[in-house]
Amino acid sequence: MIYTDRVILTPGPTEIPHRIRLALAKETTNPDLDPEFYEFYNNVRSKIRKLLHAYKSDVYIMLAEAMLGLEASIANLVSRRDKVLVIANGVFGEGFVDLVKMYNGQPIILEGDWRKSIDVSEVDKILEKNKDISIVTLVHCDTPSAILNNLEEVAKVVKGHGALLIVDAVSSVGGVEIDVDKLGIDILIGGSQKVLNVPSGLTIMTISNEAWEKIEKVNYRGFYMNLKLWKDMSDSKKIFPYTICDPLIYALNEALDMIFEEGLENVYRRHKKAQKASWAAAEALGLKLYPLSIEDSSPTVTAIEVPKNIDETKLREIAWKKYGVMIAGSWGKLQGKVIRIGHMGTQASRTHLIIAYTTLAKTLRDLGMDIKTSKVIEAIEENFQ
Hints:
Layout: E1 7-8, H1 18-24, H2 35-52, E2 58-63, H3 67-77, E3 83-88, H4 91-102, E4 106-111, H5 120-129, E5 133-139, E6 141-142, E7 147-148, H6 151-160, E8 164-168, H7 180-183, E9 187-191, E10 202-207, H8 209-218, H9 227-237, H10 246-262, H11 264-284, E11 301-305, H12 312-321, E12 325-326, E13 338-342, H13 350-366, H14 376-383
Parallel strand pairs: 1-12, 3-4, 3-5, 5-8, 8-9
Antiparallel strand pairs: 2-10, 6-7, 9-10, 11-13
C-alpha cells in the first residue's frame, strides 16, 4: 500500500511501509540498561539466523550503515601482506580493493564484465595459481549495475581451496535466498535500508567459527568496528559495546515479521516476478537493459541504459519534481549512463512497477522521445502472475 503522493523507487534507501513506520514510533527505552531490550535484541538476532540459515555462525546487528560491516570485515580479518582475492565486476566489488589496501593487505584483483555474473572458472584459476590467498571478497548483488553474482558456485570454489569468504549481501538479503551454513560463508554483511525497507543505520553481520580463528590472530585494535568486542560484550556480558538505536531494532523486527508472515518462499517468488515484470516493461518501452541477460541480473533491482540524447540527471529530476517518483542513477563509470528501478521488499509489487514504468514513459516523452506505452501495463500484468 502506498500512503503518500511521492513514491521512492530507488534500490536503497527504500520506501518505508506503514507498519515499519509505526514500529519506529514505539515508546523507546534505554537499551544500555533495560534487560528486556537485550532479550528483544536477541530475539531479532534469532530471526536473522532463520532468514539467512545462519545457525552455525554468530549474528550481530550493529549501529551504522552497512559500510561499517564492509570495512569491519576487512579490518578484523586482514593482516599485513595478506593476499585477498577481490572479485571486482562492479562498483562495490572494486570498493573492496581500497579497503584491503587501507588495512595493509595485498589485493589480487579479478576484474569481470560489469554486465554479467563473474566467471567462476576464473576464480578457480586464480586460487589454484595463488595458493597463499587466504580471503576472497564477493558482492552478491552489485546494485549500480544490477547484476547478481553466482554466490553458490563461487562459494563452492572458494571453500574448495580453503579460503575465507566475505560476502557483501547488502542488496540481496531478504530478496534472494541465502543459506550461510550450506555455502560456508565466513562473513556476510547485510543492511537495513534495502530489501528490509528499514531506514539506513543498521549493519547485519554473520561470522563463522573459521572467521573467528582468523580474527583472533589479526587482533584488530580499533573500537567501533572491533568484532571481538561484540563477541565479548554482547554474548558474554549481555551488554552492548555502545548505545544501540532501539527504534531501528523495533523497525527491523517488524520488517522480519512481515517477511515471515508472507513466507520466505513467497517473498523470493515475488521478487523473481518483479524482476521478470520489470524487464518486460522496459522492453515494452523499447529500452535497453544494462545486464546482458535476466539470468545475470538481480531480482531486487533493474538497470536500464539511458537512451541516446537523454540527460540522465534531467530525467530523474522531472520524474521526481513533476511526477513525485524517485528513481536512481548509478555510480562510477556508469554515472549518467544508467538509471535504476528498485523492486526491493514491499517495492517488489505490481503497483510499484506500474507507477515506475508509466512515470518513466511520461518523463521520456517530456524529454522528446516517441515512447509507446500501450503495452507497458500489460507486460507487467502478464509477468506478475
